[in-house]
Amino acid sequence: MEKESIKKEVVVVGGGPAGLSGAIEAAKAGARVTLIDENDRAGGQLFKQIHRFFGSSEHKAGIRGYDIGKQLLQEAKDLDVEVMLNTVVWGIFKNGLLGIKRENKTEILVAKRILIATGASENPLSFPGWTLPGVMGAGAAQTMINLHRVLPGRKIVMVGSGNVGLIVSYQLLQAGAEVLVIVEVLPRIGGYLVHAAKIRRMGVPVLTSHTILKAEGKNEVEKVVIAKVDKKFKPIKGSEKKLKADLVCLAVGLEPLAELCWMAGCRFFYSRILGGFVPLHNKNMQTSIPHLYVAGDVSGVEEASTAMEEGKLAGIAMTESLGYISHQEAKKKKNVIQERLLALRQGPFGEERNQEKEKIYEIF
Length: 364
Ligand SMILES: Cc1cc2nc3c(=O)[nH]c(=O)nc-3n(C[C@H](O)[C@H](O)[C@H](O)COP(=O)(O)OP(=O)(O)OC[C@H]3O[C@@H](n4cnc5c(N)ncnc54)[C@H](O)[C@@H]3O)c2cc1C
Fold this sequence. Notes:
Strand content: 25-35%
Bound molecules: flavin-adenine dinucleotide
Helix content: 25-40%
Order of helices and strands: EHEHEEEEEEHEHEHEEEEEEHEEEHHH
CATH superfamily of the largest domain: FAD/NAD(P)-binding domain
Number of domains: 2
Largest sheet: 7 strands, mixed
Shape: globular
Radius of gyration: 21 Å
Distance between the termini: 31 Å
Number of helices: 9
Structural class: alpha/beta
């Protein structure tokens, strides 16, 4: 298989903020980089993010996600990163071999270093009626409104009040839909209160200690039943409310999309805080398989800003190991990025994640 394979130096799987940043950093150091993404445009989640980012100017605060995407794509182009679009990586094997599919053809690549930056997938939630048309992930609804300009429903029940639930609710309102309610099973709102306040100002109730019981309809969602839950998350009889709705959006968490890492034989660690099973990695973003690196949501679900920093770390570490930059220079660069990551991982959500990441580095 190795003889028939196409030789590459650094292959990055996934063109979201993590993959693009890793590709740019590796190309800056002089490596020949190939970036692969299954979509017809690289950028990952960034092109769905029409809101301005938080943080400091180093973290591109105040800039809208899609503008960050455009900037990164331009940088990658200027650095001659080879970009393979509409291409799926379906397998990663021993000795740097990757199986890809493009234009209906299967090809085998072999790379000296691989960065897996495949992002995360949305968690499902099952309840009677959950397979009816009109029940979808909040991220899918966001893709429909912000990328394809299609409104997936007019009367919406959002399940989950994390940042995804809050932000997508706001964007659905901007797109002309009515968000009837956001239900949250926990006794508190999951996301940033600034997002929740915006939603509430627009008249959307955020009901904590509430859940969805069922969706009803003949061929698609027509009605949704919600109810209050007790301390043990059991629905309280008599608290049910029936709403006339045509869309249920599920924003109940994201999980690292790590199949390729499983396939490659990476060691894993379970972290509830980081979204589930996470490939073990060190501070260089190197996995238990030395030529394989991870960055972004696949290495633990966080945010686009941390994904970019982790991508840069991986890019530097890969090119350091290939001899493009000295250990001293790499150390200096990595220290600056670690400082920025620490700054990003502050606050109640960030600190938990920081502790979890430290645990992972230690176990590694
Ligand atoms: C609704 C919503 C709002 C958000 N708002 C913010 C925010 O305000 N600020 C912030 O910092 N973060 C925000 N985030 C989080 C942020 O989008 C993610 O943390 C970030 O995009 C992760 O980057 P990534 O590069 O790891 O993954 P992604 O951006 O998901 O990119 C992964 C890419 O890999 C591709 N891919 C996957 N598998 C394969 C394969 N086998 N072959 C080829 N290609 C593959 C995917 O199609 C995708 O293009 C938000 C997320 C959501 C869902």
